[in-house]
Design goal:
This protein is an alpha/beta fold. The two termini are 37 Å apart. The chain has helices at residues 43-51, 72-76, 93-103, 109-118, 132-144, 162-179, 190-196, 214-219, 272-288, 292-295; strands at residues 3-14, 17-28, 32-36, 58-63, 78-81, 150-154, 182-186, 199-204, 207-213, 221-227, 239-245, 249-255, 266-269.
Amino acid sequence: MTAILEAIGLGKRYGRRQALSDCTLTVPAGRVVGLVGPNGAGKSTLLQLACGLIAPTSGTIEVVGGRPAADAAQLAKVGFVAQDTPTYTGLSIADHLHLGARLNPTWDKGLAEGRIRDLGLDPAQRVGRLSGGQRAQVALTLAVAKRPELLILDEPVAALDPLARREFLQGLMEHVAEHGTTVILSSHLVSDLERVCDHLISLVASRVQLAGDVDDLVSTHFRLTTARRDAESLPKGMRVLQATHTERQSTFLVRAGTALHDPAWVLEPLDLEDLVLTYMAEGRTATATKTPEAQR
């Protein structure tokens, strides 16, 4: 597996606040990666470290074979769209494309102009008069037209309506299909990630809780319902993530290498949203049980 991003013990601290802790992960090339987690989990911090916008206070990170933002050549390998899809309201779309061409040595003029044409946008129109979805599409065009090997998107569809989100994601996937760009997409909208992502990273309380291919993760997580019993009585090899009990029944959310069967069980696979929420809850519970000293 070729890694396009590799972090080892990566951390970022702002004063007394630890924004990211001991982050060790590998992002395979050629994937569309969903990055999930609650607010304050460290998602934006990780993405800004990957872009070279900020520097780590501990550990190391390597992106596309080098240190983030080490030089002009390294900068050209990474495209970035922030949550507010930054554009210049007083400039036209054509001005943005001209600026992109001047700043990026790998700029693909045909790709940029073709995307704007396919979107039905007038290059002479000022960006400040576009809708939120149209501004997001312009920002995406600027990012992909530099032909990056890694495209990083930090919640770019958070403020868009459902139709604009779908159009943005459709445009993204068309680009990925044509050019094979690796994408890391941060979002709270798991339903959007489920449509486009084949790899998942979950951050909770500034730490990596879960990482892997979506198909592998979904196929190894189950909801197990049975007559009331203790978690300790389940077969070895089952990791219990959550347990709820009624007077006569127990329900466990478990991770297991294979779907073990028992006539007394009802065993159902978890969908991606249930899986993500389960790990978020587990991470928050683990953080809440730490001593105050451990959380400082």
